[in-house]
């Protein structure tokens, strides 16, 4: 009944043909329709199973001829196709010979209390502007530092100077680096960058001084950042900010600061001078302070662009100043928490800087430069610590920040 293509063989059907009307009636009889539908089903079914023997592979039973209970884990994984180990890009270690490709592993670079034993590297950074008169003293103290000099790199930024700072610096650095008695430092970098337009004198009238201070602090912040980004190397563990106008500091100051193992730590800054054969001591740096509720309130009342500067009558912050605490005769290891810090002498774990904490040259929480640095570090969750009884002596200068007024 089925032709080569599964259709009816019409001539055979026609041979027994009744008259056309009865064919018509016959076709529409239920039994005929049912048998036609059944025939169609049989054809479709047959076509689906009667294809080539290759298609029968679909029903091939693969895997080991064992019950799953008897399979080893490897058999099971082969059988299921799961957990099959895959090795991508399997190759021998790469050998990179190009001298233009440099690899630094920062993972072993740590900043710890054992910095001295671990031979942790220290970067000393000093921004300079019209500072030639201070350089001799600066290097006199620098060479006395007892931290091994071959672990110390120096970085200077000379900018906006109209005196002989650069020449004097170059001469001093060469003198020190030529020494063969372990005085020479590991390396020295001198960065030159003029920012321009920072006309500021302490003599200007007080009512202009406040605004000028904010501009000056932003400019110094920018200079510090340029110096930091130009000098920080991958192997530095500590960054030690040291101003040029320090007149006395303990030779082991680097070890002393590192031992505290704090993210950021500053000593207290005093000044002294001889007057009529009398040694006059004073507290210098009012930029290291603890925030007060009144200071926060004051900041909240200001525009976000206003930079607060301590010591001017325009704004009274009622903060607690480290300069007013402590004494150099007391326990040098005593620590206090700070929110803002001064820049005369700061020890920083290099990773704090690497993480992006720097010296804002704009108003960050209404502070700029080192005070903004303290605020930013605190915001990022770093420790900011002061040592009220560990004193570094600053030159006595008219530029010293004014003592804040009482509320
Ligand atoms: C890299 O340099 C070493 C030593 O000179 C040499 O033996 C090696 O074949 C070089 N490898 C490649 C990939 O050039
Ligand atoms: C300043 O702070 C002290 C606490 O350090 C507080 O006793 C005093 O009332 C504050 N002064 C003002 C004016 O808010």
TrEMBL record:
<dbReference type="InterPro" id="IPR052086">
    <property type="entry name" value="Mannan_Polymerase_Subunit"/>
</dbReference>
<keyword id="KW-0472">Membrane</keyword>
<keyword id="KW-0812">Transmembrane</keyword>
<dbReference type="GO" id="GO:0000136">
    <property type="term" value="C:mannan polymerase complex"/>
</dbReference>
<protein>
    <recommendedName>
        <fullName>Mannan polymerase II complex ANP1 subunit</fullName>
    </recommendedName>
</protein>
<keyword id="KW-0333">Golgi apparatus</keyword>
<dbReference type="GO" id="GO:0000032">
    <property type="term" value="P:cell wall mannoprotein biosynthetic process"/>
</dbReference>
<dbReference type="GO" id="GO:0006487">
    <property type="term" value="P:protein N-linked glycosylation"/>
</dbReference>
<dbReference type="Pfam" id="PF03452">
    <property type="entry name" value="Anp1"/>
</dbReference>
<keyword id="KW-0735">Signal-anchor</keyword>
<dbReference type="GO" id="GO:0000009">
    <property type="term" value="F:alpha-1,6-mannosyltransferase activity"/>
</dbReference>
<keyword id="KW-1133">Transmembrane helix</keyword>
<comment type="similarity">
    <text>Belongs to the ANP1/MMN9/VAN1 family.</text>
</comment>
<dbReference type="InterPro" id="IPR029044">
    <property type="entry name" value="Nucleotide-diphossugar_trans"/>
</dbReference>
